[in-house]
Amino acid sequence: MTFQPGQPVRVKRDFPELRGPCHIRTPHYLRGLDGTIERPLGSFANPEDLAFARPAAKVPLYHVRFDQPSLFNEGAKGDTLLVEIFEHWLEAR
């Protein structure tokens, strides 16, 4: 595991679907945005490879917490969104 609970991260601003067929588990609306590692969830076969029946290496998966008001321009201070994101979609801030 590369990231630790409480560590700030950024979701990579990448759009591989523009380069050809792919299977992505990272929401578009989070790409390029900052969040905080809530906790590691373990390592799992990469679903982006499994979707195409390719060999799939195990990749760490994290719960990443985002501030809800800044994402959707609604909600109260302290409201958050918790999303599962694979490590290869995250970068340290």
From TrEMBL:
Origin organism of this chain? Falsiroseomonas bella
* Name of the protein in question: Nitrile hydratase
- Taken from the record, one Pfam family name reads NHase_beta_C
Task: Identify the InterPro entries for this entry.
Answer: CN_hydtase_beta_dom_C (IPR024690), Elect_transpt_acc-like_dom_sf (IPR008990)
The Nitrile hydratase beta subunit domain covers 2-91
